[in-house]
Amino acid sequence: MAPRGHDQRCIVEALGRELRVRGSILDGAVLMPPQPHATADPLPGNEAWREIFQGSFVGPLALLKAAIAAMRPDPASGRRCKIVVVSGISSAQVLGHYATSNVIRCAWLAEAKTLAFALGERGIHVNTLSLGGTLSPWYVAGIERRAAAAGVSYDERLGEETANVPLRKYGTPDEVALAVEGLLSSLSDHMTGLNILHDGGFTRAY
Questions:
Q1: Pair 119, 68: CB distance under 8 Å
Q2: Which of these, 75, 160, 166, 183, is most buried using a 10 Å CB contact count?
């Protein structure tokens, strides 16, 4: 569960102070904003939207600002800083059961592209990595629950769920880590403002 507004501000302010006190200089930052729970309701109430945006956008953006303030890029000497925002594929393709996440992920995509444009001349790169199905512990647990409810084995359920994924598999946390590592490395020295889909080919959008 994401910290609520006041708690988020305290955490971000504490991080900013700690970075300043230590004189820390960051070469990169990876941000994975918390996502709203899956829901098919496209019109939640105003209070629900305020809570969603505070927890999944406003608070994490303040954290990113603190990280950017601790970056000291110098493109002339080859020193570049990299930011990776980890999102989901509804940033590129609407998913009916992720109604509010569709909005938040598109907001982050737009913010990342805006930051890429604004910070590029300084040598700060901002890219988005949008994940499809990924076999994290909670995702595996979900597959196990769906398999049990359908009266089939885990492998059978996994096969059914990945039948429309061209690579016929979900991603793994190790594969995500490698993709993030690549975006933090010199691989992305001429890349910014990109939304990279890590979904086994599931997303069909251009």
A1: yes
A2: 183
CATH of domain 5-134+171-198: 3.40.50.720
Alpha-carbon span 57 to 47, nearest angstrom: 15
Q: Is the pLDDT of residue 179 over 90?
A: yes
CB atoms within 10 A of CB 32: 14
Cα-to-chain-centroid distance, residue 184 = 14
Place of tokens 């020193």: 79
Three-class HEC string of the chain = CCCCHHHHHHHHHHHHHHHHHHCCCECEEEECCCCCCCECCCCCCHHHHHHHHHHHHHHHHHHHHHHHHCECCEHHHCECEEEEEEEEHHHCCCCCCEHHHHHHHHHHHHHHHHHHHHHHHHCEEEEEEEECCECCHHHHHHHHHHHHHHCCCHHHHHHHHCCCCCCCCCECHHHHHHHHHHHHCHHHCCCCCCEEEECCCCCCCC
**Domain residue ranges of the chain, discontinuous segments joined by +:** 5-134+171-198
